[in-house]
Amino acid sequence: MHGTSYVDIFNPGDVWYFPRGYGHSIQGLGPGECHFILIFDNGDFSEDHTFSITDFIAQTPTDVVMQNLGLAADEYALLPKKEAYFAKGPVPSTASHDAYPRISSDLITKHRYPLMAKQPRLAPGGGTQRTVTVEDFPISSTMAGSVIELEPGGLREMHWHPNADEWQYYLDGKAEMTVFLAEGNAVTEQFEAGDVGYVPMGAGHYIKNTGSDVCRILIGFNSGHYEAIDLSEWMAGNPVDVLATNLSLPREIAHKLPHKSVFIAPKS
Q: In the chain, is it the N or the C terminus that has fewer CB atoms within a 10 Å radius of its CB?
């Protein structure tokens, strides 16, 4: 946009975001393979409709391309004749004159946020949560992200998100989740590394680590703002007599219910 471009180096734990329609490329720097997860804010996204400049050029009349790019006929002949989805080339390095210069040392740039460098929300014995939102990462106006780590037996308490759908990718460990859809409808599923989970906006759910190792989950929300209503926090904001009546509990037991957000409960 407006002739600006950005080049960033990404490491494990970093988040990348670009708005719809922005041109972009991803280049592996080695020495090994690079694995990343792409999350979109629209479930109807189709990779078949990805806009590629090589495809655009290949489908445009030759004379137009030559005029537009200032190429001679023999030079035009070297261009790809179809979309180049993956292209292999030399690996750039800071020792190369082709390396993109950077005049300042920055922790956060316009399109990069170092999520795993952030101090997490911590529930002792239960787990951690790191979030990135539009408040932290201004360009990310349509999505927020989170990484949750649950200790064995840890429970991300019953809660719901009033402003966004939730998409989950299980990185490590095993977990159980129940999604409550109102009027007696609920679904309970088991998850392990490589599985994907989904929770519609406003649906109640929890995540419990059912394995013997830490369970790590990458979560995406289709809103730039992170909002969650925890069951314990909601109940703590209500008068005791209302809780006792609603839950059919003696008043003395209703007094024992949480008086603040549990967030992540450790193994009992």
A: C
Q: Is the separation of the CB atoms in 113 and 15 below 8 Å?
A: yes
- Considering only CA atoms, which of 80, 83, 90, 84 is closest in space to residue 27? 90
Helix (H, G, I), strand (E, B) or coil at 48: helix
- Give the model confidence (pLDDT) of 213-243 as tens digits: 999 999 999 999 999 999 999 999 999 999 9
**Pairing of the two strands 215-221 and 166-172:** antiparallel
Q: What is the dihedral of CA 164, 169, 171, 173, to 10 degrees?
A: 90
Tokens of 241: 């007599």
Q: What is the pLDDT of residue 229?
A: 96
Angle formed at CA 95 by CA 15 and CA 28, multiple of 5 degrees: 35
Pair 247, 166: CB distance under 8 Å: no
Cα–Cα separations (whole angstroms), residue 136 to 139, 182, 216: 9, 33, 22
Q: Cβ(158)–Cβ(204) under 8 Å?
A: yes
Contacting residues for 138 by C-beta, under 8 A, at least 6 apart: none
Provide the 3-class DSSP secondary structure of residue 63.
helix
Q: Is 181 exposed, middle or buried (0-12, 13-18, 19+ CB in 10 A)?
A: middle
The SS3 of residue 176 is strand
pLDDT tens readout for residues 22-45: 888 888 887 888 899 999 888 887
